[in-house]
User: What shape does this take?
Amino acid sequence: MKRNRKQITYLAMLVTAVLAAVSAGGQPARAGGDEVEHGRYLVRQVSLCVDCHGAALTGGHVGHNPAAPYAPAIAGLPGLDVEAVALFLQTGNLNGATVPPPMPRYRMHPDDAHAIAVYRKSLAAQPSPLPSASSGVTSATASP
Assistant: This one.
């Protein structure tokens, strides 16, 4: 009898924990609510923006795709605002247009998309190491 009560108690605790997580939007709690730090984590460890845009997000060479060999600088959100970048990371569209490959079409949770945009905005804008327009790379082929 005592064993059944223990099992029921553990089951009730598990159900309570699951319901609390679901009601919180399924998002893990962020220590101190630091949105910038959460965005930094997502950029570096989850969405891996640094793989193409460089460690400082100042742009970089993408050797694996001859159609789009350079990724533009995205630190400081040059020419964009936080809301536009957050919406892009949720929909895959930027200013009403689809950004071409190799940029992935993310479908992020609004909180994560906003955290990434806030983190990128917190960085100092840097000039992109993109080659001149005569090389065939234009803002239309660059990704946010």
Observations:
- Confidence is low (pLDDT under 50) at residues 9-32, 132-143.
- The domain at 31-130 is CATH 1.10.760 (Cytochrome Bc1 Complex; Chain D, domain 2).
- Strands lie at 60-61, 70-71, 93-94, 97-98.
- The radius of gyration is 20 Å.
